[in-house]
Design a protein that fits this description.
Strand content: under 5%
Shape: rod-shaped
Structural class: mainly alpha
Order of helices and strands: H
Number of strands: 0
Helix content: over 70%
Radius of gyration: 21 Å
Largest sheet: none
Length: 49
């Protein structure tokens, strides 16, 4: 790897990492929202019954 390719390579790796982190964040967010909804709904159901 010559010195000119270094920064470009790092940039590519960084961008790929950021995309994966973003995807992971979205997965975690949707997962926790689902759990939250499930929890809230069961709480409401218990109170009304």
């Amino acid at each position: 790897m010559n010195p000119k390719e270094g920064p470009a390579m790092l940039k590519m790796i960084h961008e790929r990492f950021c995309r994966q982190a973003q995807r992971l964040h979205e997965i975690i967010e949707s997962f926790s929202l689902r759990i939250l909804k499930k929890g809230l709904c069961s709480d409401i159901d218990e109170k009304t019954s």
